[in-house]
Amino acid sequence: MGLDTRRPLLLVDVDEVLGLFMQGFGRFLEDRGLEFRVDRFALFQNIYRPGEDQHLPVDQGKIHFDDFFRLGCGDMEPAPGGAEALRALSEHANVVILTNAPGPARMARARWLGRHRMDYPLVLNTGPKGPQAAGMVRQVRGPAVFIDDLMSNLDSVAQSAPQVHRFQMVADPRLQPLAPTAPNRHRRIDDWDELRQAIEAAIL
Ligand SMILES: [Mg+2]
């Protein structure tokens, strides 16, 4: 994908890092007459019919989730400051977008990134991100950084490529207090300006 092997590598997630996924998904569900309640850090267990206390069956939630990626993920708002931070960091580092998204979402996702001035190489992954991240990190000689909102991905990278600087970022203020976190293992910074400075201090 044309990495400059002499430069540091920055691997950045999309949903809840560069884009306000839960907000966009919530609006998409409202258009379908459903409610997305942000009362825990979950996806399929947060979808309700209005007025009901039991969430939709998880397999139905999964259908709406896949539909959102196919039809609606272009409507998501960008996380404040993310594009500006990447632009500054890209002057010194390779920026690669590493997103877990179903295959049919590739075009919509690439268009969304382009529209919000984040037109960097895009890698779609499924499952824990450690193995994919480790493969890319091996291609550069400089230091590497991994940014994600999910502990499962951060732990996976810690295992597969322990030398990588890891940062947890949770962009949606409603999710920040709910997101599982382990600052002793992965630094947690929810503000893009502050995160950019910490990354610069770590790799430049
Ligand atoms: Mg994410």
- The domain count comes to 2
CATH topological fold name of the largest domain: Rossmann fold
Q: What small molecules does this complex bind?
A: magnesium ion
CATH superfamily descriptor of the largest domain? HAD superfamily/HAD-like
Helix and strand succession? EHEEHHEHEHEHEEH
Largest sheet: 6 strands, parallel
Radius of gyration: 17 Å
Work out the helicity level: 25-40%
Coarse structural class: alpha/beta
User: What's the CATH first level of the largest domain?
Assistant: Alpha Beta
CATH architecture of the largest domain: 3-Layer(aba) Sandwich
What's the average pLDDT?
A: 95
Could you explain the architecture of this structure?
With 204 residues, the protein is α/β, with parallel strands linked by helices. The chain is 36% helix and 15% strand. It has a six-stranded parallel β-sheet with strand order 5-4-1-6-7-8, sandwiched between helices. A two-stranded antiparallel ribbon has the order 2-3. Bound molecules: magnesium ion. The site of magnesium ion has 7 residues, from loops.
Quick take:
This protein is an alpha/beta fold. The protein has helices at residues 21-31, 58-72, 82-89, 106-115, 130-137, 151-160, 192-203; strands spanning 9-12, 35-36, 47-48, 94-100, 122-125, 144-148, 165-168, 187-188.
